[in-house]
Amino acid sequence: MKNFCIWILACLVLMLVACEEDSTGPKMMAPNLGTLELSGWTVESKNEDSHTISISPSKKWLDSIVIDSVEALGDAKLYLAADDDLYDPELGKELVSGTVISTVDTSEFSIIVLDKKNRIVVVWLVSWDSPSVIASSSSNAIASEASQSSSSEMALSSSSARKDSSSSSSQQSSSSETVLSSSSARKDSSSSSSWQSSSSEVAQLTLADLQPIVNGDTLKNAVTVNGDKILINVPYSSSLGNALSQVRFVGMDSELDLRTAKTLNLLSADSLWTAYRVIAGVQVLGSDFTKREDAFFATTSDAMATEGSVQVVANYTFTATANLVENGESISLSSEIVSCAWAGILGAKKLATGIYFAGTYAGQNAMNIYDVNYTSGTPSTDLSDISSQMTFGREFTARPSAFELTYSYVHVANSNSSYPQKALAYVILVSKDSKAVAIGAFTLDASAEGTSTTELSYGADPDAVLSAGYVGTSDLTLGTGREDVASIRVVFASSAYAHVVAGGTTVVNDPAIEYRGGEGSTLTLENWKLIYE
To answer: What is the pLDDT of residues 79-100, one digit of tens each?
Structure first.
Protein backbone atom coordinates (compact mmCIF):
# COMPACT_ATOMS: atom_id res chain seq x y z
CA MET A 1 0.00 0.00 0.00
CA LYS A 2 2.86 2.35 0.90
CA ASN A 3 4.54 1.77 -2.47
CA PHE A 4 1.26 2.48 -4.25
CA CYS A 5 0.92 5.87 -2.48
CA ILE A 6 4.48 6.78 -3.38
CA TRP A 7 3.74 5.90 -7.03
CA ILE A 8 0.59 8.10 -7.02
CA LEU A 9 2.57 11.01 -5.51
CA ALA A 10 5.28 10.67 -8.16
CA CYS A 11 2.67 10.78 -10.93
CA LEU A 12 1.18 13.97 -9.48
CA VAL A 13 4.62 15.59 -9.38
CA LEU A 14 5.25 14.65 -13.01
CA MET A 15 1.87 16.06 -14.04
CA LEU A 16 2.58 19.35 -12.26
CA VAL A 17 5.98 19.64 -13.92
CA ALA A 18 4.47 18.94 -17.33
CA CYS A 19 1.78 21.59 -16.81
CA GLU A 20 4.40 24.10 -15.74
CA GLU A 21 6.49 23.38 -18.83
CA ASP A 22 3.45 23.80 -21.09
CA SER A 23 2.60 27.15 -19.53
CA THR A 24 6.06 28.57 -20.15
CA GLY A 25 6.65 27.50 -23.74
CA PRO A 26 8.42 29.74 -26.26
CA LYS A 27 5.12 30.97 -27.71
CA MET A 28 4.47 32.84 -24.45
CA MET A 29 7.78 34.72 -24.48
CA ALA A 30 7.87 38.35 -25.56
CA PRO A 31 10.77 39.45 -27.77
CA ASN A 32 13.71 40.14 -25.50
CA LEU A 33 17.36 39.41 -24.88
CA GLY A 34 17.88 35.71 -24.18
CA THR A 35 21.57 34.92 -23.65
CA LEU A 36 24.80 36.92 -23.75
CA GLU A 37 28.24 35.29 -23.51
CA LEU A 38 31.45 37.34 -23.75
CA SER A 39 35.05 36.33 -24.43
CA GLY A 40 37.31 37.31 -21.51
CA TRP A 41 34.44 38.89 -19.57
CA THR A 42 32.07 37.62 -16.91
CA VAL A 43 28.41 38.58 -16.60
CA GLU A 44 28.10 39.53 -12.95
CA SER A 45 24.39 40.34 -12.91
CA LYS A 46 21.41 40.63 -15.24
CA ASN A 47 18.32 42.51 -14.08
CA GLU A 48 15.20 41.73 -16.13
CA ASP A 49 13.23 44.60 -14.58
CA SER A 50 15.72 47.41 -15.15
CA HIS A 51 17.15 45.83 -18.34
CA THR A 52 20.70 46.26 -17.09
CA ILE A 53 23.67 43.90 -17.26
CA SER A 54 26.85 44.32 -15.22
CA ILE A 55 30.06 42.71 -16.50
CA SER A 56 33.72 42.56 -15.45
CA PRO A 57 36.94 41.21 -17.01
CA SER A 58 37.51 37.54 -16.14
CA LYS A 59 41.22 37.97 -15.35
CA LYS A 60 42.95 41.14 -16.48
CA TRP A 61 41.66 44.34 -18.07
CA LEU A 62 40.88 44.06 -21.81
CA ASP A 63 40.51 46.95 -24.25
CA SER A 64 37.71 45.18 -26.13
CA ILE A 65 34.81 42.83 -25.69
CA VAL A 66 34.20 39.96 -28.12
CA ILE A 67 30.66 38.60 -28.33
CA ASP A 68 30.97 34.82 -28.10
CA SER A 69 27.24 34.11 -28.21
CA VAL A 70 24.13 36.26 -28.18
CA GLU A 71 20.53 35.22 -28.65
CA ALA A 72 17.16 36.98 -28.76
CA LEU A 73 13.89 35.37 -27.80
CA GLY A 74 11.07 34.86 -30.29
CA ASP A 75 11.41 36.76 -33.58
CA ALA A 76 13.46 39.57 -32.03
CA LYS A 77 16.64 40.99 -33.59
CA LEU A 78 19.51 42.67 -31.77
CA TYR A 79 21.46 45.80 -32.71
CA LEU A 80 24.04 47.97 -31.02
CA ALA A 81 23.00 51.55 -30.32
CA ALA A 82 25.02 54.01 -32.41
CA ASP A 83 24.43 56.96 -30.06
CA ASP A 84 23.27 57.83 -26.54
CA ASP A 85 20.06 59.52 -27.60
CA LEU A 86 17.80 59.29 -24.58
CA TYR A 87 14.63 59.12 -26.60
CA ASP A 88 15.29 57.27 -29.84
CA PRO A 89 18.56 55.37 -30.14
CA GLU A 90 20.01 55.16 -33.61
CA LEU A 91 20.56 51.63 -34.87
CA GLY A 92 24.17 50.63 -35.25
CA LYS A 93 25.43 47.33 -36.60
CA GLU A 94 23.61 44.09 -35.95
CA LEU A 95 24.81 42.30 -32.83
CA VAL A 96 26.02 38.81 -33.77
CA SER A 97 28.61 36.32 -32.59
CA GLY A 98 32.09 37.67 -33.27
CA THR A 99 31.17 41.34 -32.85
CA VAL A 100 33.99 43.33 -31.22
CA ILE A 101 33.17 46.25 -28.91
CA SER A 102 35.86 48.67 -27.70
CA THR A 103 36.12 49.40 -23.97
CA VAL A 104 38.46 52.37 -24.45
CA ASP A 105 37.13 55.67 -23.03
CA THR A 106 33.74 54.17 -22.23
CA SER A 107 32.15 52.02 -19.54
CA GLU A 108 28.92 50.93 -21.23
CA PHE A 109 27.13 50.05 -24.43
CA SER A 110 23.47 49.49 -25.27
CA ILE A 111 21.71 46.62 -27.02
CA ILE A 112 18.51 47.47 -28.92
CA VAL A 113 15.90 44.71 -29.17
CA LEU A 114 13.62 44.96 -32.23
CA ASP A 115 10.45 42.94 -32.72
CA LYS A 116 9.50 41.30 -36.02
CA LYS A 117 8.08 44.62 -37.27
CA ASN A 118 11.39 46.37 -36.51
CA ARG A 119 9.96 48.32 -33.59
CA ILE A 120 12.04 48.98 -30.49
CA VAL A 121 10.86 46.66 -27.72
CA VAL A 122 13.48 47.43 -25.10
CA VAL A 123 17.06 48.67 -24.74
CA TRP A 124 19.53 46.86 -22.48
CA LEU A 125 22.41 48.71 -20.84
CA VAL A 126 25.64 46.71 -20.46
CA SER A 127 28.10 48.44 -18.09
CA TRP A 128 31.39 47.77 -16.33
CA ASP A 129 33.83 49.53 -14.01
CA SER A 130 36.60 51.44 -15.75
CA PRO A 131 40.26 50.45 -15.04
CA SER A 132 40.66 53.41 -12.64
CA VAL A 133 37.76 52.16 -10.53
CA ILE A 134 39.16 48.64 -10.53
CA ALA A 135 42.65 49.89 -9.58
CA SER A 136 41.33 51.87 -6.61
CA SER A 137 39.55 48.87 -5.13
CA SER A 138 41.13 46.61 -2.55
CA SER A 139 43.03 43.58 -3.77
CA ASN A 140 41.48 41.15 -1.32
CA ALA A 141 38.58 38.95 -2.43
CA ILE A 142 36.03 40.49 -0.05
CA ALA A 143 36.71 44.01 -1.28
CA SER A 144 36.64 42.76 -4.85
CA GLU A 145 33.21 41.24 -4.31
CA ALA A 146 32.01 44.48 -2.71
CA SER A 147 33.30 46.42 -5.72
CA GLN A 148 31.39 44.11 -8.07
CA SER A 149 28.27 44.54 -5.99
CA SER A 150 28.69 48.33 -6.09
CA SER A 151 29.16 48.17 -9.85
CA SER A 152 25.96 46.18 -10.18
CA GLU A 153 24.05 48.67 -8.03
CA MET A 154 25.43 51.59 -10.05
CA ALA A 155 24.29 49.92 -13.27
CA LEU A 156 20.83 49.48 -11.86
CA SER A 157 20.57 53.08 -10.67
CA SER A 158 21.96 54.47 -13.91
CA SER A 159 18.97 53.21 -15.86
CA SER A 160 16.23 55.80 -15.95
CA ALA A 161 13.28 55.61 -13.56
CA ARG A 162 14.70 52.49 -11.82
CA LYS A 163 14.22 52.70 -8.04
CA ASP A 164 17.23 52.06 -5.79
CA SER A 165 16.16 50.26 -2.62
CA SER A 166 19.16 51.54 -0.63
CA SER A 167 17.39 54.69 0.66
CA SER A 168 14.11 56.58 0.47
CA SER A 169 15.84 59.69 -0.92
CA SER A 170 17.23 57.57 -3.75
CA GLN A 171 13.72 56.30 -4.47
CA GLN A 172 12.38 59.83 -4.61
CA SER A 173 15.13 60.87 -7.00
CA SER A 174 14.42 57.86 -9.20
CA SER A 175 10.73 58.76 -9.38
CA SER A 176 11.55 62.17 -10.78
CA GLU A 177 13.81 60.62 -13.41
CA THR A 178 10.89 59.72 -15.64
CA VAL A 179 11.43 57.23 -18.46
CA LEU A 180 11.00 59.15 -21.70
CA SER A 181 11.60 56.38 -24.21
CA SER A 182 12.31 52.73 -24.71
CA SER A 183 16.00 53.61 -24.91
CA SER A 184 15.82 54.87 -21.29
CA ALA A 185 17.66 57.84 -19.87
CA ARG A 186 20.84 56.00 -19.04
CA LYS A 187 23.81 58.01 -17.85
CA ASP A 188 26.67 57.09 -15.54
CA SER A 189 26.69 58.38 -11.99
CA SER A 190 28.86 61.39 -12.80
CA SER A 191 26.10 62.98 -14.87
CA SER A 192 23.07 61.93 -12.82
CA SER A 193 22.53 65.40 -11.38
CA SER A 194 22.33 67.04 -14.80
CA TRP A 195 19.94 64.36 -16.03
CA GLN A 196 17.75 64.78 -12.97
CA SER A 197 17.56 68.50 -13.68
CA SER A 198 16.59 68.03 -17.32
CA SER A 199 13.97 65.40 -16.56
CA SER A 200 12.34 67.10 -13.59
CA GLU A 201 10.46 69.39 -15.97
CA VAL A 202 8.39 66.41 -17.15
CA ALA A 203 7.99 64.71 -13.80
CA GLN A 204 4.56 66.28 -13.40
CA LEU A 205 3.15 64.76 -16.59
CA THR A 206 -0.03 62.89 -15.80
CA LEU A 207 -2.05 60.59 -18.01
CA ALA A 208 -5.17 62.74 -17.72
CA ASP A 209 -3.41 65.94 -18.86
CA LEU A 210 -1.40 64.49 -21.73
CA GLN A 211 -1.57 66.83 -24.75
CA PRO A 212 0.75 66.36 -27.74
CA ILE A 213 2.20 69.21 -29.78
CA VAL A 214 2.76 68.42 -33.47
CA ASN A 215 3.93 70.94 -36.06
CA GLY A 216 3.52 73.63 -33.39
CA ASP A 217 -0.17 72.80 -32.89
CA THR A 218 -1.50 71.51 -29.57
CA LEU A 219 -3.78 68.57 -30.34
CA LYS A 220 -6.74 68.39 -27.98
CA ASN A 221 -8.84 65.22 -27.67
CA ALA A 222 -6.13 63.40 -29.62
CA VAL A 223 -5.14 60.88 -26.94
CA THR A 224 -6.72 57.43 -26.74
CA VAL A 225 -5.74 55.19 -23.82
CA ASN A 226 -6.20 51.43 -24.00
CA GLY A 227 -4.70 49.68 -21.00
CA ASP A 228 -0.98 50.40 -21.04
CA LYS A 229 -1.05 51.70 -24.63
CA ILE A 230 -1.54 55.32 -25.70
CA LEU A 231 -2.46 56.25 -29.27
CA ILE A 232 -1.83 59.84 -30.38
CA ASN A 233 -4.21 60.53 -33.27
CA VAL A 234 -2.40 62.96 -35.56
CA PRO A 235 -4.41 64.59 -38.38
CA TYR A 236 -2.99 64.14 -41.87
CA SER A 237 -1.67 67.12 -43.79
CA SER A 238 0.19 67.39 -47.07
CA SER A 239 3.07 69.07 -45.20
CA LEU A 240 3.33 66.38 -42.54
CA GLY A 241 7.02 65.89 -43.35
CA ASN A 242 8.92 64.57 -40.36
CA ALA A 243 6.46 65.95 -37.82
CA LEU A 244 6.18 62.60 -36.08
CA SER A 245 9.89 62.69 -35.31
CA GLN A 246 9.45 65.93 -33.36
CA VAL A 247 6.49 65.38 -31.05
CA ARG A 248 6.47 66.84 -27.57
CA PHE A 249 3.88 67.18 -24.85
CA VAL A 250 2.60 70.22 -23.00
CA GLY A 251 4.88 70.65 -19.99
CA MET A 252 7.79 68.93 -21.69
CA ASP A 253 10.52 70.71 -23.66
CA SER A 254 12.22 67.63 -25.06
CA GLU A 255 10.96 66.07 -28.28
CA LEU A 256 10.16 62.45 -29.02
CA ASP A 257 10.48 60.58 -32.30
CA LEU A 258 7.12 58.81 -32.47
CA ARG A 259 7.67 57.27 -35.89
CA THR A 260 8.25 54.20 -33.75
CA ALA A 261 6.66 53.41 -30.40
CA LYS A 262 8.23 54.83 -27.25
CA THR A 263 7.70 54.27 -23.52
CA LEU A 264 6.69 57.03 -21.10
CA ASN A 265 6.38 56.83 -17.32
CA LEU A 266 3.31 58.86 -16.37
CA LEU A 267 1.27 59.41 -13.26
CA SER A 268 -1.83 57.30 -13.74
CA ALA A 269 -5.30 58.07 -12.41
CA ASP A 270 -4.40 56.43 -9.08
CA SER A 271 -1.25 58.61 -8.81
CA LEU A 272 1.16 55.75 -9.47
CA TRP A 273 4.10 55.95 -11.84
CA THR A 274 3.14 53.67 -14.72
CA ALA A 275 4.93 52.79 -17.96
CA TYR A 276 2.85 53.38 -21.10
CA ARG A 277 3.67 52.44 -24.69
CA VAL A 278 3.06 55.56 -26.80
CA ILE A 279 2.29 55.35 -30.52
CA ALA A 280 1.47 58.12 -32.99
CA GLY A 281 -1.18 57.21 -35.55
CA VAL A 282 -2.09 59.15 -38.69
CA GLN A 283 -5.24 58.54 -40.71
CA VAL A 284 -5.10 59.76 -44.28
CA LEU A 285 -7.51 62.10 -46.03
CA GLY A 286 -10.65 60.47 -47.38
CA SER A 287 -10.23 57.21 -45.51
CA ASP A 288 -13.95 57.12 -44.64
CA PHE A 289 -14.99 57.60 -48.33
CA THR A 290 -17.60 60.22 -47.42
CA LYS A 291 -16.14 62.48 -50.10
CA ARG A 292 -13.30 62.39 -52.57
CA GLU A 293 -10.12 64.00 -51.30
CA ASP A 294 -8.28 65.07 -54.45
CA ALA A 295 -5.31 66.12 -52.31
CA PHE A 296 -4.74 62.44 -51.60
CA PHE A 297 -6.73 60.13 -53.87
CA ALA A 298 -7.03 59.95 -57.65
CA THR A 299 -8.96 57.80 -60.11
CA THR A 300 -9.11 57.12 -63.86
CA SER A 301 -12.92 57.13 -63.75
CA ASP A 302 -13.26 60.79 -64.76
CA ALA A 303 -11.36 60.06 -67.97
CA MET A 304 -13.47 56.95 -68.55
CA ALA A 305 -16.58 59.14 -68.42
CA THR A 306 -15.26 61.73 -70.91
CA GLU A 307 -15.51 61.05 -74.65
CA GLY A 308 -12.35 61.58 -76.65
CA SER A 309 -11.88 61.86 -80.38
CA VAL A 310 -9.16 62.36 -82.97
CA GLN A 311 -9.35 63.29 -86.64
CA VAL A 312 -7.09 61.26 -88.90
CA VAL A 313 -8.54 60.28 -92.28
CA ALA A 314 -11.83 59.85 -90.52
CA ASN A 315 -13.07 60.79 -87.09
CA TYR A 316 -12.32 58.18 -84.41
CA THR A 317 -14.23 58.43 -81.13
CA PHE A 318 -13.36 56.76 -77.85
CA THR A 319 -16.11 56.19 -75.31
CA ALA A 320 -16.60 54.53 -71.93
CA THR A 321 -18.61 54.98 -68.76
CA ALA A 322 -17.52 56.09 -65.29
CA ASN A 323 -16.31 53.15 -63.22
CA LEU A 324 -16.27 54.89 -59.84
CA VAL A 325 -19.52 55.56 -57.99
CA GLU A 326 -19.42 57.61 -54.79
CA ASN A 327 -22.20 56.61 -52.41
CA GLY A 328 -21.66 59.12 -49.60
CA GLU A 329 -20.31 56.57 -47.12
CA SER A 330 -18.67 54.17 -49.54
CA ILE A 331 -17.31 53.91 -53.08
CA SER A 332 -17.90 51.28 -55.77
CA LEU A 333 -15.27 50.45 -58.39
CA SER A 334 -16.16 48.39 -61.46
CA SER A 335 -14.34 46.99 -64.47
CA GLU A 336 -15.84 48.50 -67.63
CA ILE A 337 -15.37 48.54 -71.41
CA VAL A 338 -13.73 51.43 -73.28
CA SER A 339 -14.30 51.29 -77.04
CA CYS A 340 -13.16 52.86 -80.29
CA ALA A 341 -15.55 53.64 -83.16
CA TRP A 342 -15.06 55.04 -86.68
CA ALA A 343 -17.98 56.93 -88.20
CA GLY A 344 -20.28 55.26 -85.69
CA ILE A 345 -19.04 51.74 -86.47
CA LEU A 346 -17.59 49.93 -83.46
CA GLY A 347 -14.00 48.96 -84.17
CA ALA A 348 -12.54 47.46 -80.99
CA LYS A 349 -13.02 47.43 -77.26
CA LYS A 350 -10.88 46.87 -74.21
CA LEU A 351 -11.45 46.38 -70.49
CA ALA A 352 -10.21 48.86 -67.86
CA THR A 353 -10.21 48.39 -64.10
CA GLY A 354 -11.95 50.72 -61.69
CA ILE A 355 -9.10 52.13 -59.66
CA TYR A 356 -8.83 54.48 -56.68
CA PHE A 357 -5.33 55.23 -55.50
CA ALA A 358 -3.08 57.58 -53.55
CA GLY A 359 -1.46 59.81 -56.14
CA THR A 360 -2.36 61.64 -59.34
CA TYR A 361 -3.53 60.76 -62.87
CA ALA A 362 -2.72 62.85 -65.95
CA GLY A 363 -5.20 61.31 -68.43
CA GLN A 364 -8.07 63.51 -69.63
CA ASN A 365 -10.52 61.32 -71.53
CA ALA A 366 -11.41 57.85 -72.81
CA MET A 367 -8.87 58.14 -75.62
CA ASN A 368 -6.11 58.23 -72.97
CA ILE A 369 -7.55 55.06 -71.44
CA TYR A 370 -7.90 53.20 -74.75
CA ASP A 371 -4.51 54.14 -76.18
CA VAL A 372 -2.05 56.03 -73.97
CA ASN A 373 -0.37 58.93 -75.82
CA TYR A 374 -2.28 58.17 -79.07
CA THR A 375 -1.40 60.73 -81.75
CA SER A 376 -2.03 59.41 -85.26
CA GLY A 377 -2.80 56.38 -87.43
CA THR A 378 -5.35 53.69 -86.89
CA PRO A 379 -6.20 53.28 -83.20
CA SER A 380 -4.19 50.41 -81.79
CA THR A 381 -5.62 47.16 -80.49
CA ASP A 382 -2.39 46.61 -78.52
CA LEU A 383 -2.07 46.82 -74.77
CA SER A 384 -2.54 50.22 -73.15
CA ASP A 385 -0.85 50.60 -69.74
CA ILE A 386 -2.65 53.50 -68.13
CA SER A 387 -0.29 53.42 -65.11
CA SER A 388 2.23 55.31 -67.29
CA GLN A 389 0.17 58.43 -66.61
CA MET A 390 -0.15 57.79 -62.89
CA THR A 391 2.11 58.91 -60.07
CA PHE A 392 1.87 56.86 -56.90
CA GLY A 393 2.14 57.84 -53.26
CA ARG A 394 1.50 60.70 -50.87
CA GLU A 395 3.74 62.10 -48.18
CA PHE A 396 3.56 60.04 -45.01
CA THR A 397 5.89 59.18 -42.11
CA ALA A 398 3.93 57.02 -39.65
CA ARG A 399 4.39 53.26 -39.23
CA PRO A 400 1.00 51.54 -38.92
CA SER A 401 0.88 47.83 -38.14
CA ALA A 402 -2.12 46.91 -40.32
CA PHE A 403 -5.11 48.26 -42.22
CA GLU A 404 -8.78 47.45 -41.88
CA LEU A 405 -11.35 47.56 -44.67
CA THR A 406 -15.03 46.73 -44.99
CA TYR A 407 -15.84 45.48 -48.50
CA SER A 408 -18.39 43.86 -50.76
CA TYR A 409 -17.17 42.20 -53.94
CA VAL A 410 -19.05 40.87 -56.98
CA HIS A 411 -16.90 38.53 -59.07
CA VAL A 412 -17.32 38.07 -62.84
CA ALA A 413 -14.90 35.55 -64.33
CA ASN A 414 -12.80 36.20 -67.43
CA SER A 415 -11.15 33.86 -69.94
CA ASN A 416 -7.56 35.06 -69.53
CA SER A 417 -5.85 32.38 -67.45
CA SER A 418 -2.61 34.38 -67.25
CA TYR A 419 -4.43 37.39 -65.74
CA PRO A 420 -7.50 36.06 -63.94
CA GLN A 421 -10.09 38.37 -62.48
CA LYS A 422 -9.53 39.31 -58.86
CA ALA A 423 -10.05 42.43 -56.77
CA LEU A 424 -7.07 44.10 -55.12
CA ALA A 425 -6.37 46.30 -52.11
CA TYR A 426 -2.89 47.13 -50.87
CA VAL A 427 -0.91 49.53 -48.69
CA ILE A 428 2.83 49.99 -49.15
CA LEU A 429 5.00 52.26 -47.00
CA VAL A 430 7.89 53.62 -49.08
CA SER A 431 11.23 55.18 -48.18
CA LYS A 432 12.74 58.22 -49.87
CA ASP A 433 14.89 55.98 -52.08
CA SER A 434 11.95 53.80 -53.27
CA LYS A 435 12.38 50.94 -50.84
CA ALA A 436 9.22 49.12 -49.80
CA VAL A 437 9.50 49.45 -46.02
CA ALA A 438 6.26 47.58 -45.28
CA ILE A 439 3.70 45.80 -47.45
CA GLY A 440 0.16 44.59 -46.86
CA ALA A 441 -2.26 43.37 -49.52
CA PHE A 442 -5.31 41.22 -49.98
CA THR A 443 -7.08 39.96 -53.08
CA LEU A 444 -10.51 38.47 -53.72
CA ASP A 445 -11.14 35.86 -56.41
CA ALA A 446 -14.76 35.05 -55.52
CA SER A 447 -17.79 37.10 -54.55
CA ALA A 448 -17.61 37.97 -50.85
CA GLU A 449 -18.29 40.63 -48.27
CA GLY A 450 -16.97 41.39 -44.81
CA THR A 451 -14.33 43.28 -42.88
CA SER A 452 -10.70 42.40 -43.38
CA THR A 453 -7.67 43.28 -41.23
CA THR A 454 -4.44 43.00 -43.21
CA GLU A 455 -1.09 43.05 -41.44
CA LEU A 456 1.72 45.20 -42.81
CA SER A 457 4.93 43.17 -43.09
CA TYR A 458 8.03 45.27 -42.40
CA GLY A 459 11.07 44.23 -44.42
CA ALA A 460 9.19 41.29 -45.96
CA ASP A 461 6.86 40.57 -48.86
CA PRO A 462 5.15 37.31 -47.90
CA ASP A 463 2.50 37.60 -50.63
CA ALA A 464 5.01 38.52 -53.38
CA VAL A 465 3.23 41.81 -54.04
CA LEU A 466 6.29 43.41 -55.66
CA SER A 467 6.61 40.63 -58.24
CA ALA A 468 2.90 40.05 -58.91
CA GLY A 469 2.57 42.65 -61.66
CA TYR A 470 0.23 44.91 -59.72
CA VAL A 471 -0.04 48.58 -60.56
CA GLY A 472 2.29 51.01 -58.74
CA THR A 473 4.92 48.47 -57.67
CA SER A 474 7.35 48.13 -60.59
CA ASP A 475 9.72 50.88 -59.38
CA LEU A 476 10.04 49.52 -55.83
CA THR A 477 12.55 47.16 -54.26
CA LEU A 478 12.12 45.45 -50.91
CA GLY A 479 13.72 47.24 -47.98
CA THR A 480 14.83 46.01 -44.58
CA GLY A 481 11.87 47.52 -42.76
CA ARG A 482 14.13 49.86 -40.79
CA GLU A 483 14.18 52.70 -43.31
CA ASP A 484 12.39 55.96 -42.54
CA VAL A 485 8.95 56.08 -44.14
CA ALA A 486 8.59 58.98 -46.60
CA SER A 487 5.34 58.16 -48.43
CA ILE A 488 2.41 55.77 -48.53
CA ARG A 489 0.95 54.00 -51.56
CA VAL A 490 -2.66 52.89 -51.41
CA VAL A 491 -4.43 51.12 -54.28
CA PHE A 492 -7.94 49.74 -54.60
CA ALA A 493 -8.85 48.07 -57.92
CA SER A 494 -11.84 46.10 -59.14
CA SER A 495 -9.55 44.07 -61.42
CA ALA A 496 -5.96 43.56 -60.24
CA TYR A 497 -4.40 43.40 -63.73
CA ALA A 498 -6.68 45.56 -65.87
CA HIS A 499 -4.62 48.72 -65.40
CA VAL A 500 -3.09 47.26 -68.55
CA VAL A 501 -6.12 47.86 -70.77
CA ALA A 502 -6.44 44.82 -73.03
CA GLY A 503 -8.90 43.49 -75.58
CA GLY A 504 -9.13 43.64 -79.34
CA THR A 505 -11.36 43.69 -82.39
CA THR A 506 -15.01 42.99 -81.74
CA VAL A 507 -16.06 39.44 -82.53
CA VAL A 508 -19.34 37.58 -82.27
CA ASN A 509 -18.17 35.66 -79.22
CA ASP A 510 -17.13 38.54 -76.95
CA PRO A 511 -16.00 36.36 -74.01
CA ALA A 512 -13.25 35.00 -76.24
CA ILE A 513 -11.51 38.38 -76.05
CA GLU A 514 -8.82 38.00 -73.42
CA TYR A 515 -9.62 40.85 -71.09
CA ARG A 516 -7.38 41.18 -68.02
CA GLY A 517 -10.41 41.05 -65.79
CA GLY A 518 -14.12 40.34 -65.79
CA GLU A 519 -16.49 42.97 -67.21
CA GLY A 520 -18.81 44.23 -64.48
CA SER A 521 -16.74 42.95 -61.57
CA THR A 522 -17.40 45.39 -58.73
CA LEU A 523 -15.59 46.20 -55.49
CA THR A 524 -17.44 48.34 -52.91
CA LEU A 525 -15.40 49.83 -50.06
CA GLU A 526 -16.12 51.56 -46.75
CA ASN A 527 -14.54 52.19 -43.37
CA TRP A 528 -10.91 51.93 -44.39
CA LYS A 529 -8.47 52.81 -41.63
CA LEU A 530 -4.86 52.30 -40.61
CA ILE A 531 -4.27 50.41 -37.39
CA TYR A 532 -1.54 51.20 -34.86
CA GLU A 533 -0.60 48.78 -32.09
So the answer is: 998 887 756 788 888 888 888 8
